Amino acid sequence: MRRLFGVLRLFAAVAIIVAIVGQFANSLSMVPDAAAFVVNFFSFFTILSNALAAIVLLIGAVYGLRGAVEPDWYTFARAAIVTYMTTTLVVYNLLLRDISLDQATTVPWSNEILHVWAPLYLLLDWILAPGRSRVPWSRFWWIAAFPIAWVVYTMIRGAVVGWYPYPFLDPAVEPGVGYDGVTVYVIAIASFILLVGSAIVGLSQVRWPYRAADARVDGGESRGERVEA
Fold this sequence. Notes:
Mean pLDDT: 87
Oligomer: single chain
Number of strands: 2
Strand order of the largest sheet: 1-2
Strand content: under 5%
Radius of gyration: 19 Å
Distance between the termini: 19 Å
């Protein structure tokens, strides 16, 4: 089972990388200022979270294909990425589905992979893949560290250069009410991230669909290590 998910993670990572490269190449060919475009492109939460997801999936694929035990730090990293990707899935479909990138034309197949299929796979992988250890609740708040840093960076940079990756973060976009409107969106999305993160951490406390021993090592033992049930 571990090796099966190792293969699936590899395919998912490749799909994400191809989708990012496909959108990047298509947009780069249409913009007048390549330097500004590159910075803007990698300022999208979707692009950053998917890039991190691809890295986490590639690492997980190595663990899976080797049948190795996944360390606790990897499980925590995966929990954080699943939270970000699930947030991307929901925010995109509720607020952004009908909005094209203002820098260039959105590539439809890339858009669907990055905003729908990749997040769905990460979520199913978290629920179904063996090897998921418990994430301590003491680490829960660290899941919010990356989104907070991204919002701070986005708002500071946006105020300087006048560009925001998403319209709901732009104080000048109607029907928002300046920074008050942006604040409402930020608080709502932050609350949702915490809600999703708590669900993801909560799932890590449950061994279903695998027995406790199988959750860490297939068959209860691997590479000479015995795992407590």
